[in-house]
Design brief:
8-stranded parallel β-barrel, 9 helices
Length: about 300
């Protein structure tokens, strides 16, 4: 099971010094990948509750968030081997033609290290600010993914969709990874699970119990076979939003929360599940408020992840 780590690209640490230090340390430690998040706004009066908190409020660190692709481009220049991923990019918020060029540029400049995690988001405020009708997000995501693949695999490229029209054009900028960078989709509903099965290279769940992940991934693989794909080729990349405590958490604790023994057990269970990669994001837990602490936890978690 590969191990990834979340970059400090939000909150007080978000900046060149912390991202450089974490990226370089993670590559030295032997992590397989680095990952960014995508947060455009911190609305004062949000219309959509934040799904990852009990009260629906966004974390305070979401008031300061760097651009996910610019952050990856920055650390690409300071590393040589480690993978560079988005977890996840809110695909419908972006013009897919411009995004295709940005993603391809990142893959070229990094020497073929881009890993594209995509989702459709949940914030009505962000969709309004981007000028994109939220009720079209699923259809726009499907179309954007189709355009990205056309951009990466055909030349000249042209595309005529419901939302995007690309006149036939020569595109000599090709990704290093062939036929294209890996695409992982966050998905929790039947429609989005079908997107993974039909169009993605893998699934990127977060916050789900082990048994639920097992059942949903089996469903995805069944759907993939129905679409004529080889189910075993689909990967599962699990996102672990860590909340580390000194004392054991109760039986009702969310996955990847609690003391180190509980975190170790969750990592071991994820490995036993057959996950191909585990993204450990320690940026939201109180123990990592300083750069020194985050670097220490990057080392401790890497050792824990390899040993579990």
């Amino acid at each position: 099971m590969r191990l990834g780590f979340g970059l400090p690209m939000s909150g007080d640490l978000a900046g060149a010094a912390a991202m450089t230090a974490v990226a370089e340390r993670c590559e030295t430690l032997g992590y397989d990948s680095l990952w960014t998040v995508d947060r455009v706004l911190y609305p004062v009066a949000p219309r959509s509750p934040y799904p990852a908190s009990a009260d629906g409020k966004l974390p305070e660190r979401s008031k300061r968030v760097l651009d996910p692709l610019d952050a990856l481009s920055f650390v690409a220049a300071r590393t040589a081997r480690i993978g560079l991923g988005t977890s996840v990019l809110v695909l419908p918020l972006y013009n897919p033609v411009v995004l295709a060029r940005r993603l391809t540029t990142l893959d070229v400049l990094s020497g073929g290290r881009l890993r594209l995690g995509i989702g459709t988001g949940w914030s009505a405020d962000e969709y309004e600010a981007a000028g994109v009708p939220m009720h079209e997000r699923g259809a726009r995501a499907d179309e954007a993914l189709a355009l990205l693949k056309a951009w990466w695999t055909t030349n000249p490229v042209r595309f005529a969709g419901r939302f995007t029209h690309l006149p036939e054009s020569v595109v000599d900028l090709r990704p290093v990874q062939q036929p294209h960078p890996k695409v992982y989709a966050a998905a929790y509903t039947p429609r989005t699970l079908r997107r993974v099965a039909r169009d993605a290279d893998g699934w990127m769940p977060a916050g789900l119990p082990i048994d639920v992940m097992r059942e949903m991934f089996a469903t995805i693989r069944t759907m993939a076979a129905q679409h004529g794909r080889e189910p075993e080729q689909l990967e599962m990349v699990v996102r672990a939003n860590l909340w580390i405590t000194e004392r054991p958490a109760g039986a009702a604790r969310p996955i990847f929360s609690g003391d180190l023994d509980q975190i170790r057990a969750d990592i071991a269970a994820t490995r036993a599940l057959g996950a191909h990669e585990l993204l450990l994001d320690a940026n939201y837990t109180p123990q990592t408020g300083s750069l020194a602490a985050l670097l220490e936890w990057a080392e401790r978690l890497h050792a824990l992840g390899r040993a579990a």
